[in-house]
Amino acid sequence: MGSEAWFPVRLTGERVILRRHVPANVEAFRRWYADPRVARLTRYQDGPMRPIEIERFFLSRVVGPDSLAMAIHLKADGRLIGTCAFSQLDGDNGSALFHITIGEIDCWGQGHGTEATQLMLAHAFETLHLHRVALSVFEFNERAIRTYLRCGLLIEGRAREAIWRDGRRWDELTMSILGHEWAARRSAAAEQPAQEAQAVAPGPAQGTRPATRDMG
Ligand SMILES: CC(C)(COP(=O)(O)OP(=O)(O)OC[C@H]1O[C@@H](n2cnc3c(N)ncnc32)[C@H](O)[C@@H]1OP(=O)(O)O)[C@@H](O)C(=O)NCCC(=O)NCCS
Question: Average of pLDDT values for 180-203?
Fold first, then answer.
């Protein structure tokens, strides 16, 4: 597989577009990772990264030749709002770890993290043909856990009381999704519009019924 497939130039969604990072993005990283609200959710250490740590992180893990990191931009106006990446890409076992940070806090909770995660999972399973994508998340990070569950990741493990935050100990969860689970979700999603079309098609005896997503 060519390196362009491993390191895509862009991954395009409905509302976000993922692009390769450029050196100027370090400015945004300086702001995001110096913010205690971001640090609380993403760091094992108490408190935000120091400026020198942010520079090192950016050079080695974001724009480094081996990093599969993508900048998250809003499609509407191009605004840079975050970053996501695979690390520990393991070709022998077909696995990788996923990371995501929407650094612009006013953009939390609007579906962008879900869409960026889905784009990266599609890349992992449909282009790279990985077998497994996993991640770690602190149990108090409810927004992140909901995002990952919505994308099809399952909670598979729990490191008990691994993290000290806000004056108490919390578990660290491991979540993962396998290639066949992703494929099954894709086929189910592809079948849904067909079922809805059938539901609205006028039948000989029933006439026209409204489409519905509720199956129960
Ligand atoms: C975690 C993160 C990527 C999620 O992206 P997002 O764009 O904010 O989230 P989305 O809008 O796509 O989805 C949020 C989900 O959490 C829910 N949610 C929103 N605010 C919430 C809150 N305060 N508490 C719990 N759930 C919340 C939403 O309802 C939605 O779930 P649903 O689709 O089942 O309704 C983003 O918030 C982020 O980067 N946070 C800071 C860094 C971080 O935590 N990174 C992950 C480390 S593992």
Answer: 78
> Which residue is closest in CA terms to ligand 1's atom 23?
143
Question: Which pLDDT score, from 0 to 100, does residue 212 have?
Answer: 30
For ligand 1, what atom is nearest to the CA of residue 82? 39
- The residues near 186 (Cβ < 8 Å, ≥ 6 apart) are none
Are 73 and 81 within 8 A, CB to CB?
Answer: yes
Query: pLDDT tens across 67-98, in order?
Result: 799 999 999 999 999 999 999 999 999 999 99
- In the reported structure, the alpha carbon of residue 109 is separated from the centroid of ligand 1 by a whole-number distance in angstroms of 5
CB 15 near ligand 1, within 6 Å:
no
For residue 214, being part of any structural domain is answered with no
Residue 42 located in a structural domain = yes
Residue 147 domain boundaries: 3-195
Task: Fill in the DSSP letter of residue 180.
Answer: H
The verdict on residue 72 lying in a domain is yes
Eight-class DSSP state of 203: B
> What domain count does the chain have?
1
In a domain? residue 150 = yes
Residue type, 66: D
| CATH number of domain containing 149 | 3.40.630.30
**Whether the predicted pLDDT of 205 surpasses 50:** no
Produce one character per residue of 160-185: b if its CB has 16 or more CB atoms within 10 Å, e if not: eeebebeeeebebbbbbbbbeebeee
Q: Are 126 and 164 in contact (CB under 8 A)?
A: no
- The 10s digit of each residue's pLDDT in 14-45 is 999 999 999 999 999 999 999 999 999 999 99
